TrEMBL record:
EC number assigned by the record: 1.1.99.33, 1.2.1.2
CC terms in the record's Gene Ontology section: membrane; oxidoreductase complex
Gene: fdhF1
Keyword Metal-binding: yes
One MF term in the entry's GO annotations: molybdopterin cofactor binding
Keywords: 4Fe-4S, Iron, Iron-sulfur, Metal-binding, Oxidoreductase, Repeat
Gene Ontology biological process: formate metabolic process; respiratory electron transport chain
Domain 2Fe-2S ferredoxin-type: 13-91
Protein name: Formate dehydrogenase H
Domain 4Fe-4S ferredoxin-type as annotated: residue spans: 156-186, 200-228
Length: 957
């Protein structure tokens, strides 16, 4: 790269021109509109929206340019040197007013989108400009009003009122150019022209994915969220972070009468105002009637029958309400008693990737200093543990090298083992935008998912053959002389061993194994190696295997031998699943790591934390999620038998593999404390249930998949006697004898953050609490107050012992369990767009429940025909561990011989069937592969009472 060497080279060139008689400066390539805006001149506009391609079709922003016959649309006319512009001349103003009046004349009498308290501003931005320009519609124009189309309320989330549409096309650009969903179009001509969905279908019947970008773009209320039709006046707007996936979209909660009524995307670095269906419409779970509002204690003599379906709305037969004093005393007393009687290893804790960094930090500190062991883990063990293991081994850091939207600078985007349009929808938009600009997307996955529509090549390899296919790509790079020799010589180690190992993995030899033609493998290898930047993004399809660490090792090797790391548009990015799985891992919710991935068995690190926390610490790694479940069922003679657990915001009774075993383990504990917002499947097996705070009810930080530490502020108070999670953790700590005293607002969150910042000084020392309050989002590593953060890392070296990538050869290791005559199909599990994790939040969100209310299994048409099935039939999917009866849907992207089942539904829990076999290094279960049989029929279990039933958010008057 030719980096700028002088400050002047970084500054945009300026152009002198005249605006309304005043000489001003514009930047080279800047429009008249943006230059005027920067200088405080507000030109009317309706079709223009910041961040969108300027269209110039509403003509409300026209200006007069000296020497030109016609008026010019200022939003898409660039400034030229010496140009003389009049934005407020008589001619320009007359035209601006005429446009606004004519558009307003077609509006219905009753508006959909009011602004402020003034009821005359009933058509959003249009009415606002009419007021500013002092326009009243003449009766003659009102008499010519168009015939008003009927409202379309077929969609669960949004109302379509085309009588308020001014055909500005902002919704078309939002759908087709920003989100790239290609649903909204502009049809017909003249007086018949209109906005349509797909082939003029009702919105509810279209292919709309409910991202709501069109709603946020619409200036008049022609497209509105059903929850917020009418007055837009709210009691307060509170800035926060989306609580769902790891993309980390910044949001604003609109609160009225102590309820969130809508959510807007904020211009954060990860999303730039964009949201997905969960982020925009999945908010009302916080107001669900099944929220826990008082501490609960299991009634004496009530058994923990782990085979029972939980009844979250009818818990009183098994639990009784208690005061906080009683519940906390029982919690601390029982946990302390087990520790003192059986030793520190008898206790374990599961923290949460859905809470804040501060909660994660305090939780792991409680387990280590109060419980006395390192038996602490969270859901990273179930998603990217093997990726982190390989990254720490290879590049010395478990976080991403480049941020998702850096795909803008990539020539090739390699997506493997991930379904980004469903699991990371906003991240997927950056990939689709890059493809529109000419980047090549390569999708490598056993399933052909939606992103394949935008892909240059799709490598639909056979499930479980990741290493074979990736080694073939590495072989092709080496064989065809495409290795970046300089990079390998100066930045990598162990290359010779890698080269020797892949000699037997030619594309020709691997093609029959992985199912991808040899020439296609070579073509992709050439494109990857020769691209100006090639970026690898992967998901749990890579990590959730017994060979997950080997899969990630191969990706590291592919990026290294081609020199595609340490520069813009390149590198390694494991897409994080939950909103704070990166931050919770950073903060130390890992059994073998203190905060910032410092090993507990490293003597120097161990001594530092003993001094920092002022207490002796266990020097041996703790047990992981699945190992803890085994230890809960260990015989009484085992000195490490786990007898008591504290689980905060995790739901292992749904998320662990081999659920019958996991639920049996949880039910067998002598004392189980669950801290959550709902009576989850795990809470149903608890002895004490502590009502906690939902994300909108707390202030704290989270760290997204891009290494951004981001601040969310409390928008609501917890309901009833529910309390902030940070407060609960501190109360339990004090009850167990720890002298904690974190003073300040919001349960001392700023004080906790400051202590965490000291523990993680090597990466976030420059990110103060005050800076987060000012900036909302700061990327780490950030080592000083004036450090802007490092979005791209490994530019000069790697944080390994020798500063080089350590290349680790990998060979084919088959799945722990293979299909056979009795179990001939492969089960693949994963998420879907509308639901997330175990469904405890999204299935209580009315819009999300309405969009995807029922569990389904996906199979392709050829397999359905072979089994004599049709879409909608009930099938029973059975493994050696369990079975579910479930409706089947057709999905030709699912490969032959496989069935895909999402894991968010209690009534068809995919993890009843999954295999608990572990990757030996990452200790992650093999969720993505096990053998199953499929037979027609079965009796699907009734829904567990999660859904709201209505599927429609109540409108706010």
């Amino acid at each position: 790269m030719n980096a700028p060497s002088k400050l002047a080279e970084l500054m945009p060139q300026t152009i002198e021109f005249t605006l309304d008689g005043q000489p001003i400066q514009a930047f080279d390539g800047e429009t008249i509109f943006k230059a005027a805006e920067r200088h405080g001149v507000d030109i009317p506009h309706l079709c223009f929206k910041d961040g969108y391609r300027p269209d110039g079709n509403c003509r409300a922003c026209v200006v007069e340019v000296k020497g030109e016959r016609t008026l010019a649309p200022s939003c898409c006319r660039n400034v030229t040197a010496g140009m003389e512009v009049q934005a407020t001349s008589e001619r320009a103003l007359k035209s601006q007013k005429m446009v606004v009046e004519m558009l307003l004349s077609d509006m219905p009498d009753e508006g959909y989108k009011w602004i402020g308290d003034d009821a005359t501003q009933q058509h959003g931005e249009l009415s606002a400009w009419a007021k500013k320009l002092d326009i009243a519609v003449r009766p003659e124009l009102k008499a010519l009003r168009r015939e008003q189309p009927k409202a379309d309320i077929s969609h669960p989330a949004m109302a379509v009122n085309l009588d308020a549409c001014i055909q500005c096309n902002r919704c078309v650009r939002a759908c087709r150019e920003e989100q790239v969903n290609d649903v909204i179009g502009y049809a017909l001509r003249g007086g018949d022209s209109k906005i349509v969905f797909d082939l003029d279908d009702p919105m509810g019947d279209s292919t709309c994915v409910a991202c709501g970008e069109c709603v946020q773009a619409c200036p008049t209320g022609a497209l509105m969220p059903k929850s917020h039709i009418g007055s837009q006046q709210v009691d307060r707007k509170v800035d926060s972070v989306c609580p769902f996936c790891g993309v980390g979209c910044l949001v604003t909660y609109n609160v009225k009468d102590e309820k969130i009524v809508s959510v807007d995307g904020r211009d954060g670095p990860a999303n730039h105002n964009r949201l997905c269906v969960k982020g925009r419409f999945g908010f009302d779970y916080a107001h669900h009637p099944q929220r826990l509002t008082k501490p609960l204690i299991r009634r004496a003599g009530m058994p923990k029958d782990f085979g029972d379906a939980p009844r979250p709305g009818d818990w009183s037969e098994y639990f009784r309400e208690a005061t906080w004093e009683e519940a906390l005393a029982l919690t601390s007393g029982k946990l302390s008693g087990l520790r003192d009687t059986y030793g520190a290893k008898s206790l374990a804790g599961f923290g949460s990737a859905k809470g804040s960094n501060e909660e994660a930090y305090l939780f792991q500190k409680l387990v280590r200093t109060g419980f006395g062991s390192n038996n602490i883990d969270h859901c990273t063990r179930l998603c990217h543990a093997s990726s982190v293991a390989a990254l720490l081994e290879g590049v010395g850091s478990g976080a991403v090298s480049n941020q998702v939207n850096d795909v803008e600078h990539a020539g090739l985007i390699f997506v493997i083992g991930s379904n980004p349009t469903a699991n990371h929808p906003v991240a997927a938009t950056w990939m689709k935008n890059a493809a529109q600009r000419g980047a090549k997307i390569v999708l490598a996955d056993p399933r052909r998912t939606d992103i394949s529509r935008h892909a240059w090549r799709t490598l639909q390899f056979k499930a479980d053959t990741d290493v074979a296919m990736l080694n073939a790509l590495i072989h092709a790079v080496i064989d065809e002389g495409l290795v970046d020799q300089e990079f390998v010589r100066t930045r990598a180690s162990n290359y010779e061993a890698l080269r020797e190992n892949v000699k037997g993995y030619s594309p020709e030899a691997m093609a029959p194994i992985c199912g991808v033609p040899a020439e296609t493998l070579r073509e992709v290898a050439r494109a990857f190696a020769s691209a100006k930047g090639a970026m690898i993004l992967w998901g749990m399809g890579i990590s959730q295997h017994v060979h997950g660490t080997d899969n990630a090792r191969c990706l590291i090797a592919l990026a290294t031998v081609t020199g595609q790391i340490g520069k813009p548009g390149s590198g390694l990015h494991p897409l994080r699943g939950q909103n704070n799985v990166q931050g919770a891992s950073d903060a130390g919710l890992i059994p073998m790591m203190f905060p910032n991935y410092q090993r507990v068995d490293n003597p120097a690190v161990h001594a530092w934390f003993e001094n920092f926390w002022g207490t002796p610490l266990d020097a041996t790694p703790g047990y992981t999620v699945v190992e803890i479940m085994h230890k809960a069922l260990a015989p009484d003679t085992d000195p490490h038998k786990v007898r008591g657990m504290y689980i905060m915001g995790e739901n292992p009774a749904m998320s662990d593999p081999d659920l019958n075993h996991a639920r049996h383990a949880l039910a067998s504990l002598e004392h189980l404390v669950v801290q959550d917002i709902f009576m989850t499947e795990t809470a149903w097996l608890a002895d004490v249930v502590l009502p906690a705070s939902a994300w909108p009810e707390k202030t704290g930080t989270v760290s997204n998949t891009d290494r951004m530490v981001q601040l969310g502020k409390r928008a609501l108070n917890p309901p009833g006697d529910a309390r902030p999670d940070l407060w609960i953790i501190q109360q339990i700590a004090r009850g167990m004898g720890l002298q904690w005293n974190y003073e300040g607002e919001e349960s001392g969150v700023a004080a906790v953050y400051e202590e965490m910042r000291q523990a993680m000084h090597a990466v976030i020392s420059g990110i103060s609490w005050e800076r987060l309050q000012r900036d909302s989002s700061v990327t780490y590593p950030c080592l000083s107050e004036d450090d802007p953060g490092q979005p791209t890392v490994f530019i000069d070296d790697f944080p390994t012992a020798d500063g080089r990538v350590k290349l680790v050869p990998a060979d084919i290791i088959p799945a722990d369990e293979r299909p056979d005559a009795e179990y001939p199909f492969v089960l693949i599990t994963g998420r879907q767009l509308e639901h997330w994790h175990t469904g405890s939040m999204t299935r209580r969100a009315s819009v999300l429940d309405a969009l995807e209310p029922m569990a389904t299994a996906s199979m392709n048409q050829s397999d359905l025909q072979k089994l004599g099935l049709e879409a909608g039939d009930v099938i029973t999917v059975q493994s050696r561990r369990g079975e579910v009866a479930i409706h089947v849907r057709r999905d030709d992207g699912t490969p032959s011989g496989a069935v895909f089942v999402p894991f968010a539904y209690y009534e068809a829990a995919a993890n009843l069937m999954t295999n608990a076999a572990l990757d030996p290094l990452g200790k992650i279960p093999e969720f993505k592969y096990c053998a199953v049989s499929i037979r027609r029929g079965g009796q699907p279990m009734a829904a567990a009472g999660y859904g709201t039933g209505s599927g429609v958010l109540a409108a706010v008057d």
